[in-house]
Amino acid sequence: MAELPYKKNTYFFTKREFEFYNTLKPIADKYDLIVFSKARLADLFSVRYDKQWQYSWLNKITSKHIDFILCSDDQCRPEILIELDDSSHDRPERQERDAFVNDVAESGGIPILRIREYTAESLEDEIKAFCSGFENVYDIMPAPAVYTAEEIIADIKKTDFGSMLKNYIFDSLEF
């Protein structure tokens, strides 16, 4: 095997990220959410079909990451994005990047929470506020353990399967 110039990083998180994770994790557990971190925007969003510009748009999100992602624990759907901001986010080039990430999140329909200073209580209040805005009644947390047949049928009746199928087909095609 060839000798490559890579070495393991000592820590996955910075000290601030690790402190935040330790505050976030029990809150996420309380609301049946799974915490992920350092995911690429391209892992969270796809580009709508645009043959001419698809790869250009994809390149814009491939190397950008989100600090933390809260996902539903039932199907691992991304529900809330969290950016842990610090003074580096005051720089103009960073503000431009942050504005783009905010726009991507809004376009893709995932709320983004930007945090500078926090306490466990203020963080939980922020997450609770986001959770109360979920569109699907089954996304309100904590989720019930069991759904009745009537609840499932009502949910199926209000689902737009035509749009789901169209999105699935376009997301599955390779160009």
How would you describe this protein?
There is one protein chain. The protein is 45% helix and 15% strand. It has 175 residues and is an alpha+beta fold. A hairpin with a 5-residue loop joins strand 2 and strand 3 (78-84). The protein starts with 14 loop residues before the first helix and ends with a helix. Residues 135-145 have low confidence and may be disordered.
> How many angstroms separate the termini?
35 Å
Mean pLDDT: 82
Order of neighbouring strands in the sheet with most strands: 1-2-3-4
Counted by DSSP, the helix tally is: 7
Oligomer: single chain
Principal-axes shape call? globular
Number of domains: 1
Question: What is the fold's blueprint, element by element?
Answer:
Blueprint: H1 15-30, E1 33-40, H2 41-44, H3 54-62, E2 65-72, E3 78-84, H4 92-108, E4 112-115, H5 120-131, H6 149-157, H7 161-172
Parallel strand pairs: 3-4
Antiparallel strand pairs: 1-2, 2-3
